[in-house]
Structures are given as structure tokens and as C-alpha cells.
Amino acid sequence: MILAANLRRACLLSCRFTKVFGVRLRERQNLRCIMVDSQYYLPNDIGISPLDCAEAFRQLSSKEQLYAHYLSRAAWYGGLVVLLQTSPESASIYVLLQKLFRRQPPAELESVATAAGLSPEEYQAFLVYAAGLYANMGNYKSFGDTKFIPNLPKEKLKALVWQSQAFQDDSKEMEALWNSCACLLYSLEDKQKQLGLGDKGITTYFSGNCCLEDAELAQKFLDSKNLSAYNTRLFKEEGAEGKRCYQVRLASAEKKDSSVDGEGETRCGRYEFGDAVFQVQRGDYAPLMKKVSDNLAKAKTYAANESQQRMLEEYARSFTYGSVDAHKEGSRYWIKDKGPIVESYIGFIESYRDPFGSRGV
């Protein structure tokens, strides 16, 4: 989504009257004029396209419906990983919104917004922001990598949260959620305006102290071990005698780095590579990866044929052990599954959000 790059002038005035030489004069205080590029807002008139699958689902057999159900559950939990891959604050913003909407639907929340002092346009801006976060699974655009922020004052959004039923039910939790993301939610510091590596932008695929040189070195190491970067993240720390140490974290339900039943040979472990040390370890996103694998195993029960069964077996192995090779094997069975009634493809596939272009969403 490309938005027009017109500048929006937002001037916030706070005024008070004071007495000077016996005359009441209007004094402007705390004048803040903020020039914000409109590309960081989603416009209020942006289109929303609901995906209605009710009729298509009704036409499936009971077996096909259960197959589709468990595939969608696997995709749901896998999709939550994208929040963690986008920005440090994305997951907290998502949970905050979920709690608001689970307690009150948008129509009911609108009355709360009015009572909290939001104009109809400001409440619409809030809904548009929420839709944007859900659509992009994070607060950066899926295409273009630009951050977007709510097009209403921070104080108004906070007032809405504070007046909501979710806040009345659990003020401590809601306040903690707000405090964990509010600053970054609105921040447009230069580094936070876009996804990028090092001082070029924000990424959670790499620790904040990684730069292009680190990404290149890690890629050479992975290539030397015939490991794919698709399901990894890289974290850098200083080791003994100033030696560079890196953690390569594999997305997997399994947390043990030693070889486990059903896996075969493991590639986890400690490796010397030039003047650096790499530690390959499992367990990144482990709770979510387990839910993905469990639901794929349930879907297998309702598979239409052997190709679907074998496909799901390999995908589950991939997400359990962190094996990209197993995912490739599953994809071979996916290709063999000709003309399925219910089709799906799941995994760390697209690499456009990784600033280095190697790690998958």
C-alpha cells in the first residue's frame, strides 16, 4: 500500500488566561507543531475487504470441514509468529487490541470512545489502525516495510483504553500492556520509521547489535553447514577475549539441542568459524510451534489421500525439530496432491521482511 506523501500539520495548543498589568491576556503554552509525513498513517477512507468463507465451508463434507478447521488452527498459531518477527512492540499491540475487542464489539466500543472524548473521525482512525495491524500482522507494512501509527492523539487512544470494559475488568493487566507498547506504538524516530538492519531500521530477525557484516558472516556459516536461514534468527554477543559469538535460533517446538527420537542427525551445537563462534540451538517460538505441529497432526486424521498425509507429517516434523529439509520434503508431497478440495501451504516462506532477505515469514 503506497500512500500519498503529503505533509500533515498537527498543531496542539494549550491555552490559559493570565493577568498582566491588570489586563487579561490569552497566553499560548506548550505549542507543539509536528510535521508528520502522511505515509505513516492509514487513511480513514481505506477499503476493507472481508473474506467470507461461510458458504464455501458449508459445501464441504464433514471430513473436509474438520481437515480445513485444523489447518486453519495451525495457520492461526503460525501467524502469531509474524508479530514476533516484525517489531518488539507488535505482539503487545495485538494483545491490547484483542482484549479490547473481545470484551466489546466495535459498535459498543464506539459509545465508549464518544464518552472518552473521541470524535467520530478519531474513532474511525482507531478502527483503521486496528485493521491495518491485523492485515499486516504488525505495525509495519507488509509491502514497503514502512511503519504506520494511529491517526489520533496518543492521549485520546489512552482514554479509550482506560474507559473500555477490558480495563474495568483488569486494569492492572491493561495498564501493563499499554505501558509496554505505547511509546513505540507512536514513535517515529528515524530508525523506527522502517524495517532495516543495524542503524538502518528495526528488525527482530537480528539482535540490535548486528550489522550487515554480521549477517553476511552468518550466511557464510550457514552455507558451510548446509543450513537454511529461513526459520532462523541471529543474536550476537561478546565472548571470551573479545571473540564474536552468535546464537542461531531455529524455530521449533523441540527445545533440546541433542538428537531426539524421530529426528535423525541434529545440526545443533557449537561451531568455530573463523574468528567467531556459532551456537545453533532450537526452541525459538517453541509454544507456538508446538500448537502448529499439534494441529497439523490432527488435520492428518482427516486428510483425503496419502499425499496429504505425508505432506502434513513432514510439515509437522519441520516445525517440531526446526528442519527446513523436512519442509522441503513436505512440499514435494504438496506438489503431488493434484486438485485438492482443501488446499493449504504453511511455513517460513516469504523473505521480504528480513532486511538481509534470507529469513522467512
Q: Please tally the helical runs, counting DSSP H or I stretches of 4 or more residues.
A: 12
- Stretches where pLDDT is under 50 for at least 5 consecutive residues are 1-35
| Class inferred from helices and paired strands | alpha+beta
CATH topology call of the largest domain: Fructose-1,6-Bisphosphatase, Chain A, domain 1
Give the SSE order as H and E letters: EEHHHHHHHHHEEEEHHH
Question: What's the CATH architecture of the largest domain?
Answer: 2-Layer Sandwich
Count of distinct structural domains: 3
Mean pLDDT: 89
Structure summary, number of beta strands: 6
Shape: globular
The side-by-side strand order for the widest beta sheet comes to: 3-4-6-5
**Strand fraction:** 15-25%
- Under the CATH scheme, which class of the largest domain? Alpha Beta
